[in-house]
Amino acid sequence: MSFIRELENNGEFWEEEFERKNDQEFMKKNAQNLSKFDSFRMLRDLLVNLKQVILGTKLCLLFPAIPLAVLAQYYHFARPWSFAFSLLGLAPLAERISFLTEQIAHFTGPTVGGLLNATCGNATELIIAIFALYQRKIHVVKYSLLGSILSNLLLVLGSSLFCGGLANIKKEQRFDRKQADINSLLLLLGLLCHMLPLMYRLSLEPAINNNNVTTSLLGLSRVGSICMLIAYAAYLFFQLRTHRQLFESSEEDVEEDKVSQDDEAVIGFWSSFAWLIVMTITIALLSEYVVGTIEAASDSWGISVSFISLILLPIVGNAAEHAGSIIFALKNKLDISLGVALGSASQISMFVVPLCVIMGWIIGVDMDLDFSLLETGSLAFSIILIAFTLQDGTSHYMKGVVLCLAYCAIAACFFFHKLPININNNSSGSLTA
User: Fold this and answer.
1) Whether this model's pTM surpasses 0.70
2) pLDDT tens digits for 143-168?
3) Could you provide one GO biological process annotation from this protein's UniProt record (predicted)?
4) I need a surface site. Which of 117, 266, 267, 273 has the fewest CB within 10 A?
């Protein structure tokens, strides 16, 4: 019996060896075919990613502006051409950043996805501000960030209310005031932190030495910036952890969007992450071109730096948010439109602006919160106008008309303000002609 069992074991052993050798021979014979198959699969995945990331937006027609901007910079074309191509190239990149963060959120969950959206939502404005700060162009930093706030509050929200009101003219559009009230509180806190350095300078500058005013303004601005960053961190915790229900869509919106919410990510996590890095690097490159050529474009076009920084740059940077907010308003989903416009404005006011002040403190650039009288006044009246517009929780197209006209009035003011304007930074970093 033991002899028979040994034969059986040997038989099984040799059968396994024979199968293993056959598998090895098969693998050797088909290794080349398998490598070709893997290459084909990688190529297919790459083409799918390119289709989703590059061609998956209507702004894909502007992607050729990116290599044109690089060529214009490399071959030393006229600097206004480099500025124009760079500005156009930033529009699709900003929209794709938002798309990629949404794809990553499918894998990380809503909390991390929300934090990622909060961080990358205004990546274009932040990167432009950082490059301008390193080049000590404080006026570009202040004007571009202020313009982004005004653009979201007046242009993006105003056009959304206008289009939504016309599309739903026979029904009353309503929204949840709680979310709007929270964002309004943040904007008012940011306005207070902006007004204090301005009022301090105007009240004390004639009486004391200018150097003392500068030192005090910087200290006051840095303390105010720290308060704003703490408030924004508390807002994120409030939004993403303790009171998430206040920022979620209504039940009807959830039911209507159930299919879209259940959809899986169209590209993988690592592909999204890699594309996010590529897009961010490209934005950084174009932002450097924009900051370096903005004065040349101003002189060539006869348009002030203030108008370009405050109007043109934010319109390009907020193009994706603008389109998305209008689409939601047309579908009578004002809560989402308000979340897009007010959320972005609050983020820039309470996070990006104070972050630039702290970064300037670290690198030795005297960046403060004194945006001068005209700029701070425009911001103050815009926030007050928004507060009155949203106070009753209803909307119609007339409110959108008022907000859009207010934006046009502010744009006209900065268009005629010193044409072309020649801005120099005084010792306090405030904006002067």
Assistant:
1) yes
2) 989 998 999 899 989 998 898 888 88
3) intracellular zinc ion homeostasis
4) 273
- Which residue is it, tokens 């701070």? 376
Note the pLDDT tens digit of each residue in 203-251. 876 655 566 667 788 889 999 999 999 999 998 888 877 877 766 654 3
413 vs 127: CA distance, rounded Å = 27
Q: Do 371 and 119 contact (CB within 8 A), yes or no?
A: no
Strand partners, 424: 432
Q: How far apart are CA 42 and CA 31, in angstroms?
A: 16
Cis? peptide before 110, omega within 30° of 0? no
Run of H or E including 173: strand 173-174
- CB count within 10 Å of CB 409 equals 12
User: Which token pair is 62?
Assistant: 């502007």
Integer angstrom CA distances of residue 108 from 174, 261, 321: 32, 15, 23
Alpha helices (H) along 168-209 = 177-204
Report yes or no: 156 and 321 within 8 Å, Cβ to Cβ: yes
Token pair 């313009």: residue: 147
Asked whether 133 and 363 are in contact (CB, 8 A), the reply is: yes
- The alpha carbon dihedral of 301, 303, 304, 306 has a sign of negative
Helix (H) or strand (E) holding 395: strand 394-395
